[in-house]
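Q: What structure does this chain adopt?
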Amino acid sequence: MKLFVFRTNLKNESQKEIIEEALSQLKGIYRWSIDMNDRNKALRIQCHGLKDKEIQSLICNAGIDCKKMY
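A:
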């Protein structure tokens, strides 16, 4: 299982729904969460068989800035 952490530019709870819709398109995601209290609005994703670039591209195409932290 892989863990990816991304920095996002989320501003409100409704934008979390955009990410939820985008991530629902990918198979292999076990769990994900967003820390709205973190200054980076960190998006953590636990998954199998996915690449960070694949996830990042999907989130960016949904209109949310997303950069891999680790």
